[in-house]
Amino acid sequence: MPNKPNHWGYKMFVLVGENPQYGFCTDIVLDLSETVPRLMNHKIYFDNYCTNIRLQVELKRLGIYAVGTVRSNRLPDLVMKTKQELTREGRGAMDYRIAEVDGVELCATRWYGNNVVNRLSTLHGCDNTDLAKRWSSK
Known about the structure:
This protein is of the alpha+beta class. It contains three helices and five strands; from the N terminus they run αβαβαβββ. A five-stranded mixed beta sheet has the order 1-2-5-4-3.
């Protein structure tokens, strides 16, 4: 991993489910969240390794809110501004879409700072954005 402070090492992800139902990452997160109480407004945050639409839909059905960064290829059929369009608009540019999947409302946001970041959420909506001052070396 050339961009990490420790360039060398091993990473092992070993969790095996007995009956795969939704896919590797979704099944693992659902198994790990079995102890989270249902319908009590608990929230789970995760990175783009696990985030996908099916996982967020299944967690919401269990009464658990979810927020995570998401890879662009895990948002199929969702037309949003491209990286080039957001870059042209400048730092702080964003685009969002609200989608309903199996009766669950999802908010997908694409934001441009130093790079493009995608977020998928069943907790936070897409409206009410605020301006924020960010530090820049310029």
